[in-house]
Amino acid sequence: MPEAISELTVQLDEESAHLTSSRAALRRMREHAQALYATGGDVAGDAYGAESLGRALSRRVAELADDPTTPLFFGRLWFAGEADYHIGRRHVTDDRGEPLVLDWRAPISRSFYRASASDPQGVAVRRRFGFSAGILTSFEDEHLDRGEELGTSSRILTNEIERPRVGPMRDIVATIQPDQDELVRADIEETICVQGAPGTGKTAVGLHRAAFLLYLHRERLRRSSVLIVGPNRAFLRYIAAVLPALGEIDVAQSTVEDLLPTAVRGSDPPEAQLVKHDPRMAAVLHRALRRYVRRPQEPIVVSDGAYKWRLPESVLVRLVDDVRREKPPHGIGRERLRARVVALLQRQVEARSGESPGEGWVRKMGRSAPVVAFLDANWPAVTPEALVYEVLRDPADAAEGILTEAEQTAIRWAKPPRSPKAARWSAADAVLIDEAAGLIDRLPSFGHVVIDEAQDLSPMQCRVIARRSEHASLTLLGDLAQGTAPWAARDWADSLEHLGKPGAAVVPLTTGFRVPQAVVQLANRLLPALGVNVSAATSLRGDGWLRVQDVSDVDAATVGAVREALEQDGSVAVIAAEPSIDGLAATLRADGLDVGTAEDEKRITVLPATLAKGLEYDHVIVVEPAEIVAAEARGLNRLYVVLTRAVSRLAVIHARPLPEPL
Ligand SMILES: Nc1ncnc2c1ncn2[C@@H]1O[C@H](COP(=O)(O)OP(=O)(O)OP(=O)(O)O)[C@@H](O)[C@H]1O
Description:
Blueprint: H1 3-43, H2 47-63, E1 73-79, E2 84-88, E3 92-93, E4 99-103, H3 110-114, E5 123-132, E6 135-143, H4 155-162, H5 178-184, E7 192-196, H6 202-216, H7 218-224, E8 226-229, H8 233-239, H9 242-245, E9 252-254, H10 256-259, H11 270-276, H12 280-290, E10 300-303, E11 308-311, H13 313-326, H14 330-353, H15 359-367, H16 369-378, H17 384-393, H18 396-399, H19 405-411, H20 427-440, E12 448-451, H21 459-467, E13 473-478, H22 492-498, E14 505-509, E15 511-512, H23 517-524, E16 538-539, E17 545-550, H24 554-566, E18 572-576, H25 581-590, E19 595-596, E20 604-608, E21 617-623, H26 625-630, H27 635-643, E22 646-654
Parallel strand pairs: 2-4, 7-13, 7-14, 8-9, 8-12, 12-13, 15-16, 17-22, 18-20, 18-21, 19-20, 21-22
Antiparallel strand pairs: 1-2, 1-5, 3-4, 5-6, 10-11
Helix pairs in contact: 1-2, 5-6, 6-7, 11-19, 12-17, 12-20, 13-14, 17-20, 20-21, 21-22
Protein name: DNA helicase
GO molecular function, one term: ATP binding
Keywords: ATP-binding, Helicase, Hydrolase, Nucleotide-binding
C-alpha cells in the first residue's frame, strides 16, 4: 500500500475507534439516566416531586437516544497549539466527565461552521467526515493555517446535498453553511425574517435555530416553550423527525388552524374569506366590543346586613372612564372595575368604623346582587363567540366607515344561526374568534416561535401568532415568490407589522441546495411575472436534468416518465392540478404501479399542486402546467412552487401550450 493511503487508513481506523468509544460512553450515560429514572420515585419525597423528576429523567433518557444510522460526530477541529475536539450531535463525556464529543451548538463548535482561511478563528485544521449507514468512510482536512479552504467544493458537502431523498426531512448539522449558521445562532432576543429562494434551506435553518435556542436557553424555554408553525399537517409530518434527531423532543408543531380552539364546521365563499382575513376586521371587532361598555346611569346601593352603602352615579362614571382609559382586555377590565367598586365601599366602612373589613366581606360585596347588576349593565361579560356572532349577524354598526357596504354584505350571515352555540363556524371565523378572545383576555406567550411558509399567512393569521408571542422573538421563514394564498404577503414589512415585530431584519438566502441549476433557470423565468421583489435563486447543483415534453397523450407520457424515473434511486412525485389527480393515480395503478398519496409514504406519490409546498422529491413529473396556472388566482406562483420541488430530475409533460413566461 502506498504510504499516503496507509496513513489515511490508519487515521480512519483511529477515528472509527473514537466513534466506538463515544457510542459506548453515550450508552453508559443513557443507562445512568435510566437507573436514576427507575429509582426516581424513591428519592423524590412526595408524589408531585416524583412525577416531575420522573418526567425530567425520562426526557433525559430520550434525549440520550443514539441513532445507529448516523455517526455521533461529523467533524473535528484542531486549535493552533491547543486541544482538539470532535464536533457532533450532542455532548458525550467519558466516565471522568472529559468530553469525547462536543455538541454542535456549543460555543467552540461555532468555528466548525464559521472559520475560514481569511478568518481562521484560531483553528489550525478542520476535518469533515463522510459516512454511510452510521460508519465513517472518509474525511477531508482543511489546513486553514496554511490558507487551505474547500468551501462549497467539499466533496463531502456535495455528496450530502446530492444524496437521494426518501422519507421525511433530515437534519443538516454536519453541513450547515456559514450564512445559514449566522441565522441559526442569532440571539434569542432577535426576530429574523428569512427571504429565501426555493431549496435554500429555510426550513432547515428554522428547525436548527429552534434546537440551538433550546440548547442555549434550556430553562427559560422549558417554561415558555418553542412553537413551530407550518402550513399543513402533511408538511409537519415531513419535518417532524428533524428536532428529535437533534435530541429535542419537546417542541410543539402546529398549523395556525390547529392553534385555534374553535371547531370548524362551516365554510365561506371567497369574497367573505377575503374580508374576514383583512386586518380591518381587528378594528371592527374592537369597536364592537367597546360598544358593550356603557356610561352608568344609576347609583349602587348595597347592604352588608349592618348598613346600607351607596356609591353615586358620578363616582361610577369616573370609575368606568378610568378603567376604559387604561385599555385592559375586556374581561380583565370587568374584574378591575369590580375591585375598584368594592375598594370604595370598603373605604366607606373604614371611615365609619375605623376598622377594615376582612377578605370574606370583600368577596361577598364583589358578588352581591347590586354590584353584579352594575357590572352587567355597564361592563358586561362577553364571550369571543358572542362578539363574533353579533358582528356577523349585523356588521353595520361596528363596521361603519371601516368596511364598505359590499364588504359588510360579504360577511353578513344570510340566515343567522339562532345563537353562538348553533353557529357552524368557518376557518376564517375561528381566526376572528381568536382575535375576539385576545381582546377579552390575555393569552400565554411562547418563548420563541418559528413560522415556516410565512408568506401565506393572512394579516389576521399573523395576529393569531402575535398574540402568542408578545414576549418572544420570531423566526420567520418564507419566499414571497411562493405566496399562493389570496392574501399572501407581497412585502415582508407588512407581515412583520401584523406579527407585532415591525422593523425586524429581513435576510436573504439565495444559494439553493435542492434544485439543480437547469431547473432553477426554468423556474426563474416565472419570477418577473410574479409581482414581488425577490432575488433569483442560484444552485450549488450542476447535476440533474430537465426535460420539457410536448405530447399528444399525457397519460401515456406520464406512465413512461414514472417508469423511467424508477430506474434511478430516490422518490418520485407526479404533480398536477387537483382535478386531474384521481385520474392520473388510476392510470398509474392500472399500469401496475404502486402509487401513494401525500398521506402515505410510498416511493411514488401523486400529489395535487396545492399540497406540494415545502416538500421535495428526487424526480418530479409536472403534468400540464397550464392547468395548474388556471386553477387559482395566483396560479403562476403555484407553478413556481411546483417546479422547484425536484432534487435531481424534472420532467414537464404538456399537451396544452405552456404558460406564457415559460
Ligand atoms: N447546508 C446544507 N447542507 C446540506 N443540505 C442542505 C443544506 N441546506 C439545505 N439543505 C437541503 O436542501 C433542501 C432544501 O432545504 P429546505 O427544505 O430547508 O429549503 P427551503 O428553503 O425551506 O425550501 P422551500 O422554500 O422550497 O420550501 C433540503 O433537502 C435540505 O436538507
